[in-house]
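Quick one: structure tokens for this chain, please?
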Amino acid sequence: MRRSVLVTLFVLVGLMLVVPGPVGARSLERKLSDASQLVGIASGSAFDALAENIADTAARTVPVISSSAGFTYRYNAATEVFERTSETLGPLYTERPDTLGRGKFNVSVTFQYVQLDTYDGTNLTNLQSADPMVIKTSDASGNPIGYRATRLRYSLGLQQYVTGFSATYGVTDDLDVNLYVPIIATNMRIGVYARDVATAGTDGVFTPFTGPQRTGYDDGNAVGVGDILLRGKYQLPRCDWLRSAVGLQLRLPSGDKSNFQGTGDVEISPFLYLSTVLWGRVEPALDLGIDYNAGSVSQSAGRYAFSVDVDITKRINMNIGYLGRSEFEGTASASDTAFAHLRSGQIVSEPLLGLDFGRKDSSDLTFGVRGVVWGNVMVYLNGIYALNDQGLRNDTIIPAGGIEATF
């Protein structure tokens, strides 16, 4: 029965990968790329690159729960019963070495709300360069007649509502396989504000000029399957006090990148998981791994996490942890989003809206509580707080909650 359920889940994943999404509607990435046209500024390659990199960064910002179950078992042939092997209820976002147990099946549903508020510490409602951008002007026949310097500001709002379905099956006592399927609802709103502050003839000599403010607005939403994860974990023989396991994760590009719901890349991620149990109720755990981007090795990233979970009682667990991710290289070079700007009377090249898509490191604090409500069914609440401001970040707390059961 459990095997048939797992096979059914993989068939459903296959259907999700081949069924095309809606055709005709402009994607959120396209809306963002074309937003400058709302105030009379033609979009181009720099605006396309800006939208593409924001979309890619947003997709990677969504946190993913671990595949570790709160209850794990191992079959005792002498007593002919399954005996619990996990001594604590475990963390939510870090993986621990314990495997589920042969023939056991764990399912969970997690709800997350991710609001993106800042980029490199700058509020998304105030994205602008320190200098005005320079735009060529032409007459009705298309002949160049000079330039104008325009201050451009974007006010961007991004929210993601994520419902994650996870299913883990114990192939053997030491080997687990897991399927994670996120359903993501993405909302985007954008305001564009432009004002001319100087003009110049074909000689490029600028004189101050204050024009009226031009404004434009657009919004959109999308619902779809995010990037599907296939995960495996093999528990190694215990060495005295140390528990260890190796893991492998395959990220499938099932999410729509143009709607901020997927990376568009296949990633293979090997991991090492370590933990120990202290005083029968405290479990520190360490995760180390690499997200290897099969399409572009330079876009790979190192992953590292540390957590401690404590069973306050046999039915209540509290956990706290650190999540880190370090990119090998940035998602774009400065030249990709470069645009002419006016600085001290000279035309120079600067990134659009002052955004830097160079290499980023992210650091997050995760904390939460698990509680057993009945038998092998438990609920959990968790939060993630950004410890640094590099890249797209939430400036408050990302909440998550869910329910899991082991059969």
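DSSP finds three helices and 23 strands in the chain.
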